[in-house]
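Assemble and predict.
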Amino acid sequence: MGKFTKEMVNDYAEKLLIGLTDEENLMVLSEFDKIDSDINVINEIDGIDKVLPMSWCLDDFSCELREDIAEESISIDEVVGNCDDYRVCEIKIPKVVGNNEE
Amino acid sequence: MKNSLKSIVSLHSDLVSGKVSSSDLIHESLKRSHKLQDECNAFVTIMDEMSGSVNDNLLSGIPYGIKDNYSTKGILSTGSSNTLKDYVPFFSATAVSNLEKLGAVPVNKTVLDEFGMGGTGTTGHTGVVLNPWDKTRMCAGSSAGSACAVAAGVYPYALGSDTGDSIRKPAAYCGVVGYKPTYGMISRYGLFPFASSLDTCGVLTRSVEDAAIVVDGMKGIDSNDMTSWDSSSVHLFDSLDGNVKGKKLCYVKELCDINNYPDATDELKEHLSNFFETLEKCKSLGMSVREVSIDQKLLNAVGSVYVVISCAEATSNMSNLTGISFGPRSEGDNYHDMMKNYRTKGFCSLIKRRFVIGSYVLQAENKDRYFFNAQRARRLIVDRWKELFKEYDAVILPVGSGPAKFLDDSKNSKISNIEPLEEHLQIGNFGGFPSITIPNGFVSGLPVGVNITGNCYDDVNVLNIAYALEGSMDYKGMVARGYDYEV
């Protein structure tokens, strides 16, 4: 095993609000090792550090600001149509403030 | 009458002449859908209540399939994920709306690898999609259900999306045509995002002509997608003339030379031999074909570049999947636990692992070494391909290492140095290049494919080369063995 640890993997998963089983954690560890060795392939490319990173495949997007004109919006019913718990026009979640007071 | 096996032009002619009605076509397509669902599990949803009518457009009244990562108003759209297993959008993707305006009739939503993140057709929440040519084999992915359904003659076309090779590899494995146009030709609005800088809408068909007709119907600039561009002067179907005399093609020595694979299987040898026979057909059509050499380091980097960039973008794109405002809500004492339960139980193992990788490469301390270096390598690879396009009209290459792989991975041969051959289609996404796969023969009794990729905005040229080549072979309009049946 390389420089990655089970605790590291769990920490990165927790940041994403994802829980991993021990088996999944082990698979990520082996994948990290593979990626780390693969990235060395990239780092071996001559002059890689002088290349401008490519974020998008096309560089000729024409962006126009839309006119500030009010348009008819979707109905509240449509917005909450896929929500499992709401009241009238507001999505319900468990109480946030004061819920975990010691 | 096997209407579903006909071309779009032929079906339109039959509809206009009254030889067949739209309801006949829809009925036949639905019957085929239910049979295929029992046999290959290609669909998330089959819409039994659809109806259509005929107008002047070639696509009117003709049934088709939609990959389940396209938003469809009022119709379940899951992305083949448990996290959206009950999600019904209140709007349709622009590409779907464009087809609807023309009178095209969707009859089912097809299975994909969860959110498009996979290449096997095995990670959708409704189960594995089987290859209609051989049910012990995979369709590849992620557009597995679409490829399966088109190959089984359910309808002439189905929508796909392509982030790495998700249209073009399933097409090869299922013996159909898979076309990914230039990035931005078709709006991505309403397509569930996977990796936004790579995601491209496209189509699977049984002929190049049908692919041109469908993308003509899907494409167009869209104010809801700033990366879409005005293609109103591009008429793909009308531009097909098969005149390719004098066109220049090249192939990459390092990918196609059998000597680079010391432990090559018989299937790989046959696949590459068949590819060189296809090149001879290109020459007989008046095209020149040259061998070019690419730095092996660049080719070896392709897979890593794809993993790093796509995982990073996916991690960000799918952070809105919380189960709070949409998706099936999970239990929890607080909103944090609710979201964690939802994401932990909802995503398949593969997706969770990719997210963690994406998170890792985006951390401030890792970003330069992993994410930015992958983006730098992406530019080097794309620049090398653009150099080729200064001299050549297109790059022609075999798709993968042979026919569809077994679902049971223990039956698949492991070949050294094979990754660049398996992964080179991702270069089409790095550069946003138009890229099409067509069937070019059989290996082990199963279809294999050849890919043609050209420069951005040069879709007409790419399609014409594919159209001419298709005409010189015997695989146009092919359906899987056993699916050429009467309904």
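The radius of gyration of chain A is 24 Å.
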